[in-house]
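Q: Could you predict the 3D structure of LLM class F420-dependent oxidoreductase?
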Amino acid sequence: MRVGFKLIAEAFSPTEIVAQAVRAEEAGFDFVEVSDHFHPWVSEHQHSGFAFSMLAAAAARTSTIELATGVTCPFIRYHPAVVAQAAATTALLSDGRFTLGIGAGERLNEHVVGAGWPAVAVRHEMLREALEIIRLLWSGGYQSYDGKHLKLEDARVFDLPDPLPRIAVAAGGPAAARIAGELGDALFATEPRDDLVTAYKSAGGTGPRYAEVPLAWARSEEDGAESARKLFRFGVTGWKVQAELPNPVNFDAATKTVTADHLREQFGCGPDVARHVEVAKQFVDAGFDQLALINAGPDMDGFFDFFAKELNPALHEL
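A: Sure. Here are the predicted structure tokens for LLM class F420-dependent oxidoreductase:
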């Protein structure tokens, strides 16, 4: 099992995100993954830096920690050719420490280019085509592709790393998990669901299984739960809502009745190591072996110290 840290790009400035990546390496994390958003989720979030720029800066200031997007939608806002080039460059700048996490996206980020927001079945078709285009470009030389949704015309990525980046495919359900097994190198999820791991493996997936573990470290359980409510109440809505709303104001309206107790049910809140391990164990028991810890608490420096001294040793006992 490996333990990583979630860089919450919606809640912190780009410079702070890079500083947190450096601090995560110092604290002993194995990897960091950063959200790739155009908009933040809720009004308390006032940031949304460009993921690949932040990763490049983090690569320059670190030496051992692995880096990943968590996750990039490789169609609509981006063309997969651009993602293929960005990922290849990031892998080179990080000396092979980069993993490309991709998924079927959210309206929140993709509607901004005015190209519409397809139904989920269509998005899965587009995700398959995007993966095929990225792989094609990473095979070298000039390439073209004529798909149902996406096209590529006489394109080449000139700077390719060796080895190529791992591709982790995000799944909110078994259909996407099967895409991860068929076309990806790893699975990425946000829920402790063993059915996602089963679907991934049944489709031929043999690689790492990434999951985001929701924690909110604080001096008291109440402070942790309230901080989690402010920063992560959107997560209570579930993916069928998260994928469809267009702007932070809509998430504010959708989560108006969410309380700190709702977040307490999902997050490890407060200073108790045992509670945080209990939350993480759900993901280990479901079959995930790459745990990306979220800290939705109010004190990031305190969390890093807590992780290094208490939580990291306890997690590895799992």
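Q: Anything worth pointing out?
A: The two ends are 9 Å apart (CA to CA).
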